[in-house]
Protein 1
Amino acid sequence: MKSGKIGVKYIVQTYGTILAMLAIIIIFSILRPDSFCTVRNFINITRQISLLVIISIGATMVMSVNEFDLSVGSMASLGGVMAALLAVNGQPLALCFILPILICFAIGWVNGWIVARFRVLSFITTLGMSTVLSGVIYKLTGGATVFQNIPQGFAWLGTKKFGEIPLLSVLMILFVAAFWFLMRHMSIGRKMYAIGGNEEAAKISGINVAKYKNMAFAFCAVLACITGMLVASRVGSANTTAGDGYFLQSYAAVFIGCTVSRQGVPNVAGTLIGAAILGILANGLTIMQSPTYMQDIITGSIIILAVIAQKLGQGDAK
Amino acid sequence: MKSLKKMFAVLLALTLVLSMAACGGTGNDGGDGDGDGGAASGLSGKKISVMTPYLGSVTTNQMVEFLKSGLEAGGAEVTVVNTDNDFGALASRIEDVVAAGTDGIVLVSADPNQVANQLQEAFDADIPVFGCDSGFIEGMQVNATSDNYQMGELIVKYLFDDLMGGKGTVIALTHRPHPGVVKRCEAFDDIIKDYPDIKLITEQHVPAEQPINDAQDIVENLLLANPDKDSVTAIWAAWDEPAIGATQALKEAGRDEVIVTGVDGNEQAISLIKEGTNLKATVQQNFEGMAQIVVDQMTKLFDGEELEKGEMYAPATLITPENAE
């Protein structure tokens, strides 16, 4: 009898979030079998969550070293704005997409360096950086959305489809696979988790904490930048606040993602599931044509329930 | 440890200074050069604060630019303050410019009711407050705007009568927290009551951070819920950005039959109308006209004339494929 109980608990703890996601899919499929439960819609969902997933992978890495990056939103806006401005300026497209990555890599590195070198709270450092970046964006654009004279080719990354499959979905899968492998099977990932688990112990065991924190912030900045550039490419314009919407959502995805892991740590696969839950809810509730306020209430409640469930599971396990 | 704390303090200070420099420094450059040689206008030498939470919006930006050049031409010293969608910050910045003794405030695209307490401080200090496409509250001088309700009427009637022939289904993309947009929505609400053969499928709120992208997702999902050809006759967007997103989603889905309309007349929307896409019409607000009204009224005031307080309207025009340019 007792073992049976533990069995259920084990399943809920390990697969609870995934089961919840499946439940959501099943509910929508029953309610709207013709429109929600179609191959085309699932392809759609992958495209709709692709940008959120890419930016959230970055947030996952920073959280794996037990830090926060509040500048992801403005970093994404900056990426989009820089790419669009370069394109308007007539630069070769490859440069339009590579130069912002290099710049954001450097900014991310600075974030990490400040946090690691001065042991400053990452919260306040990146908050400051976020404000600085907003200023830079304002300076670059005069505050206006960049959309005039963007060359046709700029939209390729954001709109290209291979048959039915959008390039954005493919990119998302590639990013997830690459970073899942990096975090799970390479020494850099293991070291990051070691730092996140116990920084002092990691240091004593010879891990260069500063270096890995720098890397986490730099990767995070690059992924935010890529997200911002893809948004700009998708809509054909760069809004100065385009990234803001992703900031809270990306952390929601990471936190829901933590509940997928038994240790409750941020992980790439979990983040994918977290973003998928948010994306499926937005998609399904819009298909149900439910009013916006209901969508907000339901989505927010599910985020809270997911983290409560995780805590309860952990409490019982101890 | 102590030195670490010090370091932290220094860094924090540095961050704050940097962020302030980055935000505040931008107001003064760019427009240098003109402004000299202004006539002996009452505006000459006046410090004017042009304040908005929405500088990222194409049209708001356009108005701010017109205001800036118009006021500077009169010899005024213009500072532009933008708070990126944040009304709390806007309230604080208003308090700041009042405390700094600005000579005049122009609130652009922001509902004065949301910063009424801060504006009251300006009124108490005898600082004239103008609105440019904002709204009017007691104590302000003039708000120049389009009559948003009439613009809503203009486009909704054109959509229902001329484009839809009085029947069919419609999706509404709205953003009711915005003071101008909500009036267009009210016009939509009032008029649709008179058309029993037009059915509202759903109204969806589009957030302001990235309206094109979000509208694209929303419409894509709604098309899946309404997959049959002609199941959606039209999409009515309360401003141009979601109309652009809707048009992109329809194009991707190959739903040529769905009609889209916007409001604002931004350049991207007008070029889509010209190209013969799903986007069929918009209403062009006369932003230049609004900014001009503010500049004229402000000049009058500083020349010592008494103003007739209240709303002043710059007339709007319907843009269709025939007259899009």
Protein 2
Amino acid sequence: MKKSVIALIVAALVLTTTFIWIFSVSGPIKPMEYVSLGVIIVVVAFALLLGYKRLSSAKKGEPAEDEMSRKVMQKASSLSFYISLYLWLAIGYFSDKFNSETHTVIGAGILGMAVTFAICWVVIYFRGIRNE
Amino acid sequence: MNNRIKEFRARYNLTQDDLAKKVNVRRETIVFLEKNKYNPSLKLAHDIARVFKVHIEEIFYFD
């Protein structure tokens, strides 16, 4: 219950910050900023989904997390960490080529890590954890 | 690993929700177990077997 409330608060904070950023931008929004916005919305939607699942479980009297959800989370975390290492390598390579600013590179890396985790979680959840 | 949870559930007239509550897991864990998409821990397998009053190997088996 506590974790789901924290997830919802973090998601709300990210959304608020994103809207402040959009309304403070002077001039038209660049295409890359639309991409960032889309990715942020996907990540927030994922966090809201996880928070909602936990809350609805708690309301039904089920445990907020059990051994399967914990295992899916552990596997998704370890896999996304492994993939993120290569992501940072690729970002380092391309940032040199395109002379990107440091804060853009760090922002892209963090968003990329969040998206990687969300994708890993969805894949592992729907594929299941079978004989290993 | 395969299992006969669905069969035993029908025999005892239990819903997935009932079984989930008895072994203290989410209903989706029972769904995944029945679809053979998840292998339970020894503790969960033991708890499920205890609900149906049988040995673990009568519910969980290898092909």
